[in-house]
Design brief:
The chain is mostly helical and 116 residues long. It is 78% helix and 0% strand.
Length: 116
């Protein structure tokens, strides 16, 4: 009689003592923290474009590096004066995109482990 109840195919809830459950939970928490960080950085970068002081505080290191690597005379005209800002913003957008994709994958793997 005991064998019939076990072989009926009823799914058991995951036990909280299983190792996969805790690793999955940790991955979900790490992924959510990374996701919150990405959105925080994106909002900070967006708000930093509002004033020169905030922009230099947020992107100052990258702008200083680019200014030291480029010459002051450019044949691009107006685009040349803003090229360093465009490069910094593109690098930041790529960084945030990669971090967002990583957070999504980490959360997905954590949820898979929670289900198993």
């Amino acid at each position: 009689m005991a064998q019939a109840s076990q072989s009926s195919g009823t799914a058991q809830a995951p036990t909280h003592s299983s190792r996969a459950y805790w690793i999955g939970l940790a991955l979900v928490v790490i992924g959510l923290l990374l996701l919150v960080y990405v959105f925080y950085e994106a909002i900070e970068a967006f708000l930093a474009t509002g004033s020169q002081v905030q922009f230099e505080r947020h992107f100052g290191g990258a702008l200083g590096y680019l200014n030291s690597m480029t010459s002051s005379s450019s044949s691009l005209g107006a685009l040349g004066t803003y090229a360093d800002v465009i490069i910094v913003l593109l690098i930041m957008a790529v960084f945030l995109g990669i971090a967002l994709a990583a957070a999504s994958v980490i959360i997905g793997k954590g949820v898979d482990l929670l289900r198993s």
